[in-house]
Amino acid sequence: MLMKARLWRRIAAVAGSLLLVAGVGVLGQTAAQADPAFTYQTVSSGRYPIDLALSADGQDLFVISRGDGGIADLRVYDTATMAETNVIPFGDASAFNPTAITVSGDGSQVWVSFYSPGEVWVYPTAALTGAVPTAPTVLSGGGGFVGLAADPTGRFVYAATLFNPQYQFDTANLAASPRTVNLPSSGSRGVATRSDGSQVYFTANAPAPAGGVFGVAVASDGSLAPDAAVIPTGDLPWGLSYSAAQDRVVSSNSGTPTSVSGFTPGDPASVVTAEVPCGPRLVDTSPAGNRVYVACLTGGIVTYDYQTGALAQVQAGDNVESVKTYGQPGGDADKVYATSGGSDEVLVFTKPTIDPIPAQSVVVGTAATFTATINDFWQTLQWQQSSDGGATWSDVDGATSESLTVDGVESASGTLYRIVAISDLFDDVVGAPTTLTVTVPPTPTPTPTPTPTITPTPTPTPTASPTATASPAPTGAQTPPSDPALAATGVEIGWVVIGGLAILLAGAVVLIVARNRRSR
């Protein structure tokens, strides 16, 4: 028995150890991690990055840095990983002041403008992305280059200068003399082109009401014909962008008040201006054109939605000079890139994604909890519910975190739930619906209590009394009454008396014999 007890104790210990090991294995698994609100990427760059451009496929990012107190340079990044793949030093910042960068419309060239020296440098894109040392083609001008814009058709690149004239370069013949055009103002800071290449726009860098945007028509042979007048937009216009999806020109105005303006080309009455709470610099639009992004020298990115009129500021970075979006044509931005000169970084904001949310099935009366995993940049969340199969949705009051707990009531079974990730940089991202199922356990059928069977008491069958033959009574004699016992048994009294006497006699004989034995 002692050995058996010891054996059982050993078996229990081994079983417990196995359970403990299994438990540690389960607890040690890492669940999918959600990105907290305001998650974005910061990537080290050169000293004081000032402008950036993307390859046509969005796979390569080109960033120029002013190099304050050091070396001005150009850096190339793989956007999939934001790994730095190439660095091109320009030289000491005291001698080289890069101001703008763009990629030619056919994607084959990367152009960099310099305020000083007054030059534009052209690199083969393949050499930069392949880290092949290549000397640039240097194009000279009158100096003061501050902005670049590539004709989407790939024919020309335009350069804005703070001093007239403004320039048009032929991408196919870099040795050709550039065409020029003079603005009615002293010069320009920003430049943008229409998507079909038929017009180019320059900011008229002047105080209001002279400040605005000047249009120039581009003929099929590339010759330039300036518009008759400037379209007023605001005080000291700076950055400029064109949205093909909305056919809208957008300019940032750096004077008083600081603002952003948008208008349909050739229509001064269409100008819509919104004040912005920062010192605006370069601008860009979403591919759909409904949202404009403004880089703020005082920090952050301001967005303005032309459809809703909503204006917001995302506080990120320091001395943000440039902002650039990337996404599918006509859609929302998938990524937003910005320079942060004060922190020597490139900021990368990625449109959020939401992992599928598992459905929940609970027993009635038990709470159900849905948990969402949101990746990349978002600012707020909102859970929604639908009781009509997803035809209509309504917000769940107060449900603004990654998890939602609902009561498991029978009436809620079949309700759909989803979460919406909201930010000022992207359109709302709506997660896939998930379902709540509430089950009602079946009510057990009670076992009926058996009804006791009452056995009826049988009715005794009466025994018939024998018919007695009466003897003739003597004359004058009285007949004695009948004995009930005789009537029930049919036994005559004489035989009963004889049996009793026989029993008494046998008892006496037993007593006598017993005494005789004792006497012996």
Descriptive labels:
2 domains, 4 helices, Methylamine Dehydrogenase, Chain H, 39 strands, disordered N terminus, 6-stranded mixed beta sheet, mainly beta
SSE blueprint and pairings:
Elements: H1 2-27, E1 41-44, E2 49-54, E3 60-65, E4 71-78, E5 83-92, E6 97-103, E7 109-116, E8 119-124, H2 125-129, E9 137-140, E10 145-150, E11 156-161, E12 166-170, E13 179-181, E14 191-193, E15 199-204, E16 212-218, E17 224-226, E18 231-232, E19 237-243, E20 248-253, E21 259-263, E22 272-275, E23 280-285, E24 291-296, E25 301-305, E26 311-314, E27 323-326, E28 335-340, E29 345-350, E30 353-354, E31 360-363, E32 368-371, E33 374-375, E34 380-386, E35 394-395, E36 403-406, E37 416-422, E38 429-430, E39 434-439, H3 484-489, H4 493-519
Parallel strand pairs: 31-39
Antiparallel strand pairs: 1-29, 2-3, 3-4, 4-5, 6-7, 7-8, 8-9, 10-11, 11-12, 12-13, 14-15, 15-16, 16-17, 16-18, 19-20, 20-21, 21-22, 23-24, 24-25, 25-26, 27-28, 28-29, 30-33, 32-36, 34-35, 34-37, 37-38, 37-39
Write a brief caption for the model.
By secondary structure, this protein is mainly beta. It has four helices and 39 strands.
The CATH homologous superfamily name of the largest domain equals YVTN repeat-like/Quinoprotein amine dehydrogenase
Shape: elongated
Could you name the ranges where pLDDT drops below 50 across 5 or more consecutive residues? 1-32, 467-498, 508-520
- Per DSSP E runs of 2 or more residues, the count of β-strands stands at 39
The rounded Rg comes to 51 Å
Tell me roughly what share of residues is in helical segments.
10-25%
CATH architecture of the largest domain: 7 Propeller
The mean pLDDT is: 85
> In oligomeric terms, what are we looking at?
single chain
